[in-house]
Amino acid sequence: MRKKTIAFVVYPGVSLLELVGNHTLLSSIMGLGPRMKMKAGYESVVVGEHLEAIPTDTPLLIIPQKTFVGVPQPEGLVVIGGGADTLPALEHAELVEYVRRAGESAEWVASTSTGSLLLAAAGLLEGRLATTHWAYADRLEAYGARYQPYRPAGWVTDGKFTTAAGVSGAIDMAIGLGATLTNQATAQFAQLMIEYDPQPPFGGIDYRHMKLLPRVIRGMSSLRAPFYTRKPRQLTRLGM
């Protein structure tokens, strides 16, 4: 029996932490499924436009395993975020078109952080509840999605679309989504194997009382975004 495919979408500037964190857990959970007599049977593949080294948000480079053409209709699609580097990616017609086509046919779709901007730019989140990194909430809504802070669950699900915010959200979402696709015991076992039990030394983040610098960053993100994201032209070019 042919295994189903999970495609993790990458592009220049992608967040390596989000890719590795989400890929490690979600792939482990879905891979454990058959061995624990669950109906999973997924294989994971990192996809990009070309099979060549691309930069990440770290000094490390990554090389996709397959191209968009090589994985046209994955059963599961995960679009990884890249912070500010996602903004120029929104103008990459081939990338957005792949996200649109693969997202429409996939059984389930997920994103981490600003990866939801690509889903929204592809027209997949119109009118849907979704989340993203807090600094890009306005951009998400500009594409027609209904922004919802991901707390307290760690992610937001609307239909077959699940979106998470930030690196920790990417990991939390992998566990939650993996449990939905297999079962809680399988997801908890994968969590145990990597000893994921976050207890930040300075406690949680108080989003309601952010200090000046985070507010400035969010404002700068909102000012910068229009130079990269022009919804009417983007959607027209994709034939939407």
Please describe what this structure looks like.
The protein has 240 residues and is α/β, with parallel strands linked by helices. It has helices spanning 16-35, 86-89, 93-105, 115-121, 137-142, 166-181, 184-193, 212-224, 231-237; strands at 4-9, 42-48, 54-55, 61-62, 66-67, 76-79, 108-112, 129-130, 146-147, 155-158, 161-164. The chain has a seven-stranded mixed sheet with strand order 5-2-1-6-7-11-10. Strands 3-4 form a two-stranded antiparallel sheet. It has a two-stranded parallel sheet with strand order 8-9. A hairpin with a 2-residue loop joins β10 and β11. α1 (16-35) runs parallel beside α6, α1 (16-35) packs across α7 and α6 (166-181) crosses α7 (184-193). The N and C termini lie far apart (36 Å).
Strand content: 15-25%
Strand order of the largest sheet: 5-2-1-6-7-11-10
Globally, the shape reads: globular
Distance between the termini: 36 Å
Q: How many DSSP helices? A: 9
| Helix percent band | 40-55%
Low-confidence stretches: 230-238
